[in-house]
Write a structure and sequence with these properties.
heterodimer, A: Cytochrome Bc1 Complex, Chain A, domain 1, 2 domains, six-stranded mixed beta sheet, five-stranded mixed beta sheet, 15 helices, 13 strands, B: alpha+beta, Cytochrome Bc1 Complex, Chain A, domain 1, seven-stranded mixed beta sheet, 20% strand, globular
Chain lengths: 424, 431
């Protein structure tokens, strides 16, 4: 899939040469241990780096340069995976072949260089106005989760289920930690990220591999760093009792979120079996939750399960009439009990395998998806291919589903609903 | 089967209109693993007053029926269609807009089997009182879900402000009350009127052999019998150029006020190339007035009047159109003033220079090329363009030829003082 080149200790390049797309994608990922303070600093830093550089000292001049380059895309984002925090720089430009003599790709490298190695910094500090503005933007982004009641309910459920654990730490950090950021601390975070983070660089498109390696050596001279550091997830305390939490806001629908623990997580040998089990439970429109909670009882528009594999969490979300909470919880748990009793069918199993296959093969049709999937799965297997994973899925049996379902243990029932019955 | 080459874009499409009137378009994509297929009828939430197939009198049907019909197409006498798609490894879905209802799947396997499932389920309606009543609970929860989404309320609230009579002001899914009136008979009436093949388009894009696929679809359609195509008569109320409500505020449990400005487009009977030019021009005007390189954005951003939620858009269909500019903001009054000032000022002091136009043109061309990496974009947009007598692949040559005058004309269609409305979503305390 990707050809790997080691550029330095802790700095790797992955190239996928393909003529499938009309663009070339270059993505850089910086990875460091996750904590709330660091996440806050790095989120503001990502915004500040995207805003301007020494060469393009205002947002407007920066964006004009990108527009001139046939609408070249350049943006940063942050995310987390297990106990790691990631800052990603995403760029994409149109293939040179469409516009003779323009040399777009080379100009993209110069822009990336400018963003990464030549930020808008004077005397070891970023522009104070930009820093303050982006602190405010990140603060508002954290606050705005409140406006999206589904996301808010999910956040609350995780905070209660896994307090002070990477599973519930936001990749954006916290309002309090954002407010404490200074120009100097932000610059220190920048230096730390550029010099000490693990770095993965991805290039997907119709490119010459040798040329790319030369260009990166020229434009992105990252130094070697300690590649061994990895921090482990803290242990979780599994509870034998179920925590029931109800919270209220001014809203109409009841947002029901159930959190379950499973010891089977991403690095566990049975990981692929749990993916199938989640699919039969509630991952698709043929799944037990959709067929029973939505289609049979007409109780919900959405009723799904998901497997947060890095944290060993399975969760169910459903939008319901809050008065029917008890009935909905009972119905959802009945579907899990059915799996635990071995009441899934060959049809459900083959439907689930077919749709998981479809989704991983479909990811080949987007450069971004290829990068994201490979970046995750290469931790399990450097020679990861979709075909290898599909082989594993195809070997899963009905008995495996039963075994997997029996590791799933309810920890919390969380309901966010209206203060009074405004829906009637 | 007709072949059309777009050399500049390195794309080739194959099209044919079958004997029953169905238009089929196929676009093979080099290197793709999956195929994306959409089967779309030119029928959406605004088509509420029409002459039913074979009848002479206009009728008006309950609000939300096109969307309700979309849901009910998936249930058959022998069960749920999703079950069949899943067995064949296809991920299926559907959506209803103001003017279209689309059924779709994507699959990396069994393309013919899945296409057959798609054609069959959309072309064989099955509605009973029992199945219709059962759906009401599900759709009521869907409506309630959207009711709790402030950005959704802001967007549709703005449209409701803009229009006095046109059904674009009615929620696509209807209301919990209006869907109670929907019956199986209604669904059959709408189905028979709007789901004739001559009102539909099948688009197949991705890993596909065009000759084989066209033959397969033709054979399938030849085996099914349809009435003769009939022209569909829809009726729309007259609509003045002024907005219906100039300002409205909704209180919701949000962390920060939300402001949206709507501008009603006065030119609403365009189709074809003229529509394409107007739409692209209006987008370029909005880019230069409000984009990240604009004087407006520089000021609003520096003063903290906008945040990452800031956005703007232009939307145009037959019969209605509007521009919108909005953001979450702590100072809705100041932001509103700045937006209004930017619009007013542009009327006397045209802000777009030739170099700006060139730069934005390059940007849009690059953006368009990039979007051709997405087979979902191609299928959905091609269909929308075709229903408006435009061709998606004319975008680049049209952009290359857009003049400054055209931009000014497009701006004039939505910058009347009377066409301007404000919608706000405010947190409870700020009231």
């Amino acid at each position: 899939m990707f050809n790997k080149t080691k550029l330095q200790d802790g700095v790797h390049l992955y190239i996928r040469k393909t003529e499938q797309f009309k663009t070339v994608n270059v993505t850089i990922k910086w990875k460091a241990p996750l904590d709330q303070k660091k996440a806050s600093e790095r989120t503001v830093l990502a915004n500040v780096m995207e805003d301007s550089t020494k060469q393009y000292p205002t947002l407007s001049s920066m964006r004009k340069a990108l527009d001139e380059l046939y609408g070249t895309v350049l943006f940063t984002d942050v995310s987390k995976r297990s106990s790691q925090h990631m800052v990603s720089l995403y760029t994409e430009c149109v293939n040179d072949e469409f516009f003779a003599g323009e040399d777009i790709f080379k100009q993209l490298w110069q822009l990336i260089r400018s963003v990464v190695f030549d930020p808008n910094v004077t005397n070891n500090a970023f522009d104070p106005d930009v820093t303050e503005r982006e602190k405010r933007n990140v603060r508002d982004r954290i606050r705005s989760i409140y406006d999206d009641k589904t996301r808010f309910a999910q956040k609350r459920m995780l905070e209660i289920m896994r307090p002070d654990h990477p599973a519930s730490i936001s990749a954006y950090g916290t309002e309090a930690a954002v407010s404490e950021i200074t120009n100097e601390s932000l610059y220190a975070t920048y230096e730390d990220m550029i010099n000490n983070d693990l770095i993965d660089i991805y290039v997907v498109g119709d490119v010459d591999e040798k040329e790319i390696i030369e260009q990166i050596k020229q434009f992105l001279p990252f130094a070697a760093r300690d590649a061994a550091k990895q921090n482990e997830l803290p242990d979780v305390k599994v509870s034998d009792s179920v925590n029931t939490v109800r919270e209220k806001q001014d809203m109409k629908q009841g947002k029901l979120h159930l959190g379950f623990h499973t010891p089977v997580s991403f690095h566990h040998p049975d990981y692929h079996k749990m993916q199938i089990t989640n699919g039969v439970f509630g991952g698709f429109a043929h799944s037990k939750l959709f067929m029973n909670v939505r289609e049979k009882e007409s109780m919900a528009y959405y009723a799904n399960s998901a497997f947060a594999s890095h944290y060993g969490i399975v969760y169910v979300t459903a939008g319901i009439d809050a008065d029917l909470e008890e009935k909905a919880v009972k119905l959802i748990l009945e579907q899990l009990t059915a799996l635990q009793n071995g009441e899934s069918t060959e049809v459900e199993l083959s439907q689930t395998i077919a749709l998981l296959e479809n989704s991983i093969l479909s990811a080949n049709d987007s450069a971004r998806s290829q990068i994201e999937i490979y970046d995750q799965y290469k931790e399990l297997d450097e020679n990861f291919t979709a075909e290898r994973l599909i082989e594993k899925w195809e070997s899963v049996t009905l008995n495996d589903i039963k075994d997997m379902a029996n590791t799933i243990q309810l920890q919390i029932v969380y309901l966010l609903s209206g203060k009074e019955d405004v829906s009637k | 089967m007709k072949e059309v080459n777009f050399d500049q874009l390195q794309e080739k499409i194959y099209t044919e209109t079958l004997d029953n009137g169905l238009k089929v378009v196929i676009l093979p994509k080099r290197g793709f693993s999956k195929t994306f297929v959409t089967f779309t009828t030119k029928y959406g939430s605004i088509d509420r007053t029409f002459k039913p197939h074979g009848k002479d009198e206009f009728i008006t049907v309950p609000d939300g029926i096109a969307h309700f019909l979309e849901h009910k197409m998936f249930e058959k006498e022998d069960g749920d269609v999703f079950q069949k798609f899943s067995l064949n490894g296809a991920s299926a879905n559907a959506y209803t807009t103001f003017g279209r209802t689309a059924y779709l799947f994507s699959a990396t396997n069994k393309l013919k089997e899945n296409t057959k499932v798609l054609l069959d389920f959309v072309q064989q309606p099955y509605f009973t009182k029992q199945t219709v009543d059962k759906e009401k609970g599900i759709i009521a929860q869907e409506i309630t879900m959207y009711d709790d989404q402030p950005d959704w309320r802001l967007y549709f609230g703005t449209i409701e402000n803009l229009y006095e009579n046109h059904p674009v002001k009615i929620d696509i899914a209807g209301t919990v009350e209006s869907i109670q009136d929907i019956t199986a008979e209604h669904l059959y009436t709408c189905y028979e009127t709007f789901y004739h093949p001559s009102n539909m388009l099948l688009f197949i894009v991705g890993a596909v052999n065009p000759e084989e696929m066209m033959a397969f679809v033709k054979e399938d359609q030849a085996q099914k019998s349809f009435d003769k195509p009939e022209a569909i008569e829809r009726q729309f109320p007259s609509e003045s150029k002024e907005v219906d409500v100039p300002e409205r505020t909704l209180t919701m449990d949000v962390s920060k006020p939300k402001l949206n400005i709507g501008m009603k487009c006065t030119e609403t009977n365009l189709q074809g190339q003229e529509m394409l030019e107007t739409e692209l021009s209006a987008n370029l005007v909005l880019d230069s007035l409000f984009g990240r390189t604009s004087a407006f954005y520089e000021k609003a951003n520096a003063e903290g009047l906008v945040d990452e939620s800031f956005s703007y858009e232009f939307s145009m269909e037959e019969g209605y159109g509007f521009a919108m500019v909005g953001s979450d903001t702590d100072e809705p009054e100041r932001l509103e003033k700045l937006i209004r000032h930017t619009i007013k000022d542009a009327k006397t002091n045209w802000p777009v220079q030739d170099e700006d136009l060139d730069r934005m043109r390059r940007k849009k061309i690059g953006q368009f090329m990039r979007s051709l990496n997405s087979i979902e974009f191609i299928a959905n947009q091609y269909t929308r363009y075709e229903f408006n007598e435009m061709n998606l692949f004319d975008v680049v040559p049209t952009l290359e030829n857009l003049s400054m005058d055209k931009l000014k004309q497009a701006f004039a269609t939505f910058s009347d003082d009377d066409s301007y409305t404000i919608f706000k979503v405010m947190p409870p305390k700020a009231q």
